[in-house]
Amino acid sequence: MMKNDSFSRWRPHPWHGLEVGPNPPYIVNAYIEITPFDTVKYEVDKLSGYLRVDRPQRTSSQPPTLYGFIPRTYCGERLGRLSPRSSGGDGDPLDICVISERSVNHPEVILNARVVGGIQMIDNGLADDKIIGILANDTVWDKVEDLPWLPQVLVERLKHYFSTYKLIPGQEKSIWIENLYGRDHALKVVNAAMEDYLDLVK
């Protein structure tokens, strides 16, 4: 009988088996779970590494960018300390939204993203930050280095999506957008999540 390993020996687990990126925290890998065309919330299954249907979206809200996570990161104690009004990290890989001029309509792809900022979000009292990145070598967005360089309307769309994507009629809101931050703080967040991951697996 074959040994039941934690990660498949034929397909790397997207959270544990892929590298953080070619030059973290500046350029990271992003494993994409959701595209701007999806009306269903997909999330990687932590045990198998395959995409699982988390839930159909209750509203017509769709992510304005590619959405996934940075491998070998973890939202734990260090990341929680960077979000003063949270009681800790949410225990998931660090999420990332990736801006691309060309449409990418397939999930379960890996890409390189330049970190330019982030959204400090709190979900049920826990830090659930969303890093904002630019697809590496994108010919339209290649000059963007920091969050203020992005069009304000695009940042507003990201804020609106994350403010509403878990809303359930008749239930109290559990998500708060606490702050927006630029590249310098985003790099600290990525570093903290990388260190939290090392604590998780040691």
Q: What structural class do helix, strand and pairing data support?
A: alpha+beta
**Whole-number mean pLDDT:** 92
Uncertain runs with pLDDT below 50, 5 residues or more?
none
Helix content: 10-25%
**N-to-C order of helices and strands:** EEEEHEEEEHEH
Rough outline: globular
Q: What is the CATH fold-level name?
A: Inorganic Pyrophosphatase
Give the percentage of residues in beta strands: 25-35%
Largest sheet data:
5 strands, mixed, barrel
Q: How many extended strands?
A: 9
Question: If strands are numbered along the chain, what order do they take across the biggest sheet?
Answer: 1-4-5-8-6
CATH architecture: Alpha-Beta Complex
Per DSSP, the total helix count is: 3
Report, as a whole number of angstroms, the end-to-end distance.
28 Å
Q: Report the CATH superfamily.
A: Inorganic pyrophosphatase
Radius of gyration using CA atoms only: 16 Å
Number of domains: 1
CATH class: Alpha Beta
Give a short synopsis of this structure.
With 202 residues, the protein is of the alpha+beta class.
What does this structure look like?
The chain has helices at 77-81, 152-164, 183-201; strands spanning 27-34, 40-44, 51-56, 66-69, 95-99, 110-123, 126-127, 130-135, 175-182. The chain is globular, with a radius of gyration of 16 Å. It is α+β, with helices and mostly antiparallel strands. The two termini are 28 Å apart. Strands 1-4-5-8-6 form a five-stranded mixed β-barrel. Strands 2-3 form a two-stranded antiparallel ribbon. 18% of the residues lie in helices and 29% in strands. The protein has one domain: Inorganic Pyrophosphatase (Alpha-Beta Complex), CATH 3.90.80. A hairpin with a 2-residue loop joins strand 6 (110-123) and strand 7. The chain is built from three helices and nine strands.
